[in-house]
Design brief:
The protein contains 12 helices and 4 strands, in the order ββββαααααααααααα. A hairpin with a 4-residue loop joins strand 2 and strand 3 (24-27). The termini are far apart. It has 3 domains: 2-35, N-terminal domain of TfIIb (Single Sheet); 108-199, Cyclin-like (Cyclin A, domain 1); 208-307, Cyclin-like (Cyclin A, domain 1), CATH 1.10.472. Helix content is 53%, strand content 4%.
Length: 308
């Protein structure tokens, strides 16, 4: 009960109290209800109990797909409660906990293991929480529709993560997913295509420009080189040089050309290692960019300036 500082309009009494549980202001002298269905907009209140912050919590954590029960499930008691029970109650407590675990469905047991693996891979790849949440949602839908049967849990997790990365435009390659999950690249790609097709997930092709910041950072190239490479890629897209070609190869070749133009020479081997493609791929894309976009003149000018 909290005192409510006003006067009763019926008896002019000041013995008014606010019933916090019912949201009412009542006159203790005549019984008149002054206000009802009140809402407490306070951020927190004083509490001197042993529970501390837990008793001041107004709501639980938000629901999330990264937990098998979306964070809404409950358990039979907590371990700290066991010591307050007698022997008979303890036996009943353990029996209830055991049966709660036994009656959990196969889907729940699968999600417990899979979401732990998903968090591990996501942490290894340093993915944002939004991508992790999206991947968990995709995996949950795949399990509910029986798409995991006949496939390893790890491959489906990797496929869901790759799909989430593509949807949120977070540049991660199949090679990186393969390395993080210890699943072959072909298997990750196959599972990814199967999941997106069965769940009807529409994903746009990767933009090669999304890979430029990561590659440029790894190669320690300047911001000017990075900006120039994005311009080259945009020109290549207008000239339809990117259709039917891997985005990482285009990004690596554009960055390689831009580095040559700005006098920050990097070998094809260095760029290939960072991008996860072969030197042959970079060489082929490099030749196409020079021929179709007339970039050879700019490279020659840079070479002359360096000689002078």
């Amino acid at each position: 009960m909290v005192k409510y500082v006003k006067k009763c309009p019926e008896c002019n009494g000041i013995n008014l109290f606010w019933n916090k549980d019912r949201g009412e202001v009542i006159c203790k002298d005549c019984g008149l209800v002054l206000e009802e269905k009140m809402v407490d907009f306070g951020q927190e209140w004083r509490d001197f109990s042993d529970e501390g912050d837990e008793s001041r919590a107004r709501a639980g954590a938000p629901s999330t797909y990264t937990q098998f029960d979306q964070g809404l499930g409950t358990e039979v008691g907590r371990k700290a409660d066991i010591y307050q029970l007698d022997r008979k109650s303890k036996n009943k407590f353990f029996r209830l906990r055991k049966w709660q675990y036994r009656i959990s469905t196969a889907i729940e047991r699968n999600l417990k293991l899979a979401l732990a693996e998903l968090k591990r891979v996501s942490s290894y790849l340093k993915l944002p929480k939004s991508v992790e949440e999206e991947a968990a949602k995709i995996y949950t839908l795949a399990v509910q529709r029986g798409l995991v049967r006949g496939r390893s849990m790890e491959s489906v997790v990797a496929g869901a993560l790759y799909a989430a990365c593509r949807r949120h435009e977070v540049p991660r390659t199949l090679d990186e997913l393969s390395e993080a999950s210890s699943i072959e690249k072909k298997e990750v790609g196959r599972t990814y295509r199967f999941i997106t097709r069965e769940l009807g997930i529409n994903i746009l092709p990767s933009n090669p420009a999304d890979y430029i910041p990561r590659f440029a950072s790894a190669l320690k190239l300047s911001a000017e080189t990075q900006s120039r490479s994005i311009e080259i890629i945009e020109k290549a897209q207008k000239a339809e040089l990117t259709s039917g070609r891997g985005p990482t190869g285009i990004a690596a070749a554009g960055l390689y050309v831009s580095a040559l133009i700005n006098g920050e020479k990097r070998t094809q081997r260095e760029v290939a290692d960072v991008a996860g493609v072969t030197e042959v791929t970079i060489r082929n894309r490099y030749k196409e960019l020079l021929e179709r976009l007339d970039l050879e003149k700019e490279i020659k000018k840079t070479k002359k300036k360096r000689k002078d």
